[in-house]
Each structure stands twice: as C-alpha cells, then as structure tokens.
Amino acid sequence: MHLIEQTRTQTRVQEPTDTDTYRLAVFNRAGTAVLLESQDSGRTLPCVRISKFTRPAQEITALLRRRWQIPSILLFSGSLEETQESAFFAALESQTQAALPPAGLDWFPVHYAISHLLSKQEGRILESTHSRAAKSTMGTDPEPFSRLGWLGNLEAWIGTVIRPLDAMRLRGFEQLNGCETFSLIRFETTHRPLWFKAVGEPNLHEFPITMALARLFPAFVPSVLASQPEVHGWLMTDSAGATLNEMADPSAWHKAVEALAGIQIASTNRLNELLEAGCPDLRITTLLELLDPFLEVMADLMKQQTKVPPVILSERDFSELSVMIKDALQCLDTLEIPPTLGHSDFNPANIIVGRERCTFLDWAEAHVSHPFLTFEFLLAHLRKDFQQLASVEKDLRATYSGAWSAVASPGQIAEAYLFSPLVAVYAYAVSAQIWRNPERLKIPGFPGYLRCLTRRMKQEADSLLRRRFECLN
Predict the structure, then answer these.
(1) What is the C-alpha separation between 136 and 1, in angstroms, rounded?
(2) CA-derived radius of gyration, the chain
(3) Phi, psi of 113, rounded to the nearest 5 degrees
(4) Closest to 131 measured CA to CA, from 76, 168, 57
(5) How far apart are CA 432 and CA 321, in angstroms?
(6) Which of 215, 372, 373, 406 is spaced 20 to 30 Å from 167 by Cα?
(7) 107-121, 136-150, 356-370, 416-430: which range is least confident on average?
(8) CB–CB of 146/106 below 8 Å?
(9) DSSP E strands: which ranges in 150-223?
(10) Considering only CA atoms, which of 459, 443, 461, 462 is closest in space to residue 301?
(11) Cβ within 8 Å of residue 56, ≥6 positions away
C-alpha cells in the first residue's frame, strides 16, 4: 500500500461525513449540449453523492450507468468554493447514442443553459468546465484526458491496434480511475478484455519502467500491445486470473512467491537497463548513504510530536537505531546475494494469479535493491490482512528459499532473513522521498506516519537484537 493511502486510511475517522457531493456537468460528445435535471425550482446540474475515499471516476460513471443508463467518461473534477463541506464538481462526456434522455433529464445547448436556465453559481460552474473541456491545445497537452473527444480518439487508435488480432472488436468500457492527467480503463472486446493505462505526475516514471519490464520479463507482467508515449500510456492484455487478495488458497501464495523469486533472479543481469528505465537505486550502498540524513529528519519530526502515547524516541534511541541499521545493511552486503528488481508496493492486490502464470501490476514503486526486501513487504501484508493464513508463513519462506538456493547457500539465505525485516522498513520509508521535501512534510498525516515507521524500525531493531542473542546461545 502506498504511503499516502496508508495516511488517508489513518485519518478517515476524523472526517465529519462519509460521503462527498458532486455537481455534474455532463456534456454530449460534440460538447454542444449539457444534461440538466428538472427540479421544482427549475433546471439544475445533476447532483450525486459518492462514498469518501473512493475513486470519483469509477464511482460517478458507475452511478450514471445504474441510475440513468448513461455510459460516460470523467474528464476532471475539483472542489467547489462553498461553505458546505465535501462539495465538488465533475465534468463528464456522455457516450450514449440514445435519442431520448432519461426521465427527469433533458439536453440543452450549453450557452443557453448558462444564460437562461441555471443559477449564477451553477452557470459559472458550467461555463468554466465547458471552457476547459472544449479547449484546443497546440503541441503537447498537459491535461490530455480533460478534453472532449479523447475517448473516441483512443477507441479509434485501439481499433487499429487490435484489427489484426483475430477480428477482435471493442464492445464497451469501464473507467476504473482517471482525471485530466492519468487514466485507467477496461475495454470489453469480442475476445478477451484489454486495459489502457496512462500515468501523470508524480508517476511519469512508471511508463518507461513498464515498457522495460514488458520487454525484459514478459512472462511476469501483462502483455503490452502498443503504447502512446505522448500521454505516457499503454494498451495491455488482461491478465487472466484473480488478485491474490481474493484468494485464501495457500497454493496461490506459494505460486506468487515462486514467481517473485523468478522475476528477481532473472533481473540480476539486467540491472543497468532497469536503472536506465528509471527504477530508483536502493542498493545497499545507496541506503547507507541516505541513513544519516534520513534519521536526522526523523529525529526532528519526533521532537515535533505533541501527544504521548505513542512513545517519543530519544536521542539515544536514534543513536542505537543508526548503529543497528548500518550493521544490518553491512551484514546483508557481505552475504553477496545480488541486488534485483524490487517493488515497494508489493501487495496482494497487485498480484494476479492465473492457471498458467502470475503477473505483477503497477510498477510505479519499482526499484533495484536487495531481493528479500520485496518478499518482506508481502509477508507484512500476510500478517496484517490475512491472519487466517498466518500458519503458512514458514512454508512461504521455504518456497522462497528453495527458489534462491540456486544463487545462495542455505546459510546465506538464513542470515539474510535475520536482517531483512529491519532493512525492509527502512528502505520503504526512505524510498517515499517525502522526508526530503519540507513542503510535503507540512501536509497533515505525513509527519505522523513517518514517525510511526521510525518506531517500527526501532521495534524491528530490538527484535533483531533478541534473535541474534538467541542464535548466540
């Protein structure tokens, strides 16, 4: 799970309501008409409520299909300047071909709606959203998915890509996520489903990384059929199977662990290509160089904590933690297990288990580092969210060890397991880069979460001391 997602989860209980309100500007494909709802007070923009902390694109477009049988695509959304909390707007492009609108709704010319039908406030909303959605751009568009007509252009492009593929044709779509700068859409076809994904800031690096992984390790990632570099997007086939978080069968977890070891071992001689593609360097040398400045920032954040509990780590705690992490890093380095491709967001939702293979998704958090760190991330999710499978952890370690036995000795593997839990927490915290950005550290939730990770490092360091003492005795 991404750091920001963890933070949002922690702050949910502080929200006063559990829904957000959206006023919708739904345009026809040409952008000449807008859909208005009939109310006792006159014509208004349709208004919907969706659950907080969900994806607006997916929730709103699904609601329009259910309530009014209108297939649509979300172009962009934003907050309304109102005293009312949780008030937003969203601009959408209807994809319906129906001549008649749903009951209670009517199509009206955009400019007529602004000047004669809507209140001043809703008129301003419609005018600004229409101006943005209908804007023509020259050269590279910084908001390529905010413009009317982009889905039609995408479908035409996909048509040219799939035309040679056994007469495959598009049959429908579902928007899973998206805004003006990124998109995730599932397309139904006459054969198997296809996915289009495009990334924006701060995940632009995911595009070259995904292209590199598709070329280097096609057995472990979705097949890429074509790409659109100008929007950092790619078209890929559906990975047949279910996500690991939907499966309680231990054999599925073993299959995922074997595949993880497989792609990691295969990557040992492709590190330069992975680094050139944009994978961050989290090898031992880099982690050692970052440790002192990272802990210095964490110590300052710890001093800013105003409530106890949780415990506030002392200067002595930080001094001991520095020694322990450096020692763990140096010990891992001496074991000479080669660095590999890694994944800082390696959670069961990003793992597709099929009959023939496992595929790994969403490589925005890819890196190059010690391989066992990614395995520790998966085990952390197992302990937290799949307690009914806790008893299989030992067997999963055996499966992972067995795959690595061709590269390292049993003694090297066992000793790596001793140090990897502590290093994994540190590597995860340092990889987020938030600690390097003073402005982002001002965002509520981030300092507290980084303090939480630091306390977790202290717990892992204490646990490592106990394990080493037990080994000596």
Answers:
(1) 37
(2) 25
(3) -60, -40
(4) 76
(5) 20
(6) 215
(7) 136-150
(8) no
(9) 170-178, 183-189, 194-198
(10) 443
(11) 20, 22, 50, 74, 77, 88, 90
The answer to whether 254 and 260 have CB atoms below 8 angstroms apart is no
Q: Phi/psi of residue 7, each to 5°?
A: -65, -45
Average pLDDT over residues 297-323: 96
Q: Give the separation between CA 69 and CA 101, rounded to whole angstroms.
A: 9
Compute, in degrees rounded to 10, the torsion defined by CA atoms 111, 116, 119, 125. Answer: 0
> Residue 6 pairs with which residues in a beta bridge?
none
Q: Please give the model's pTM, rounded to 2 decimal places.
A: 0.91
The residue among 334, 323, 341 whose CA lies nearest residue 282 is 341
Map tokens 């990975």 to a residue: 239
Mean pLDDT score, 145-155: 97
Tell me how far the alpha carbon of residue 413 is from its chain's centroid: 31
For the sheet containing 170-178, what is the strand order? 170-178, 183-189, 194-198, 233-237, 224-228
Q: Output the six-digit token pair for 420.
A: 């990897």
Token pair in block for residue 391: 């008893």
Domains of the chain: 17-133 (3.90.79.10), 144-237 (3.30.200), 242-472 (3.90.1200)
Strand partners, 23: 47, 89
CA distance linking residue 203 with residue 214, whole number of Å:
17
Q: Is 233 helix (H, G, I), strand (E, B) or coil?
A: strand
* Cβ atoms of residues 274 and 220 within 8 Å: no
Start-end of H helices in 405-445: 410-431
Beta partners for 234?
A: 197, 227
Both tokens of residue 235? 């078209």
213 CB-side CA count, 13 A: 30
CA 437 centroid distance within chain: 20
Which of the pair, 347 or 10, is modelled with greater confidence? Answer: 347
pLDDT range class, residue 28, cuts 50, 70, 90: very high
The answer to whether the Cα torsion of 386, 390, 392, 397 is positive or negative is positive
Pair 195, 159: CB distance under 8 Å: no
Cα dihedral 434, 436, 441, 445 sign: positive
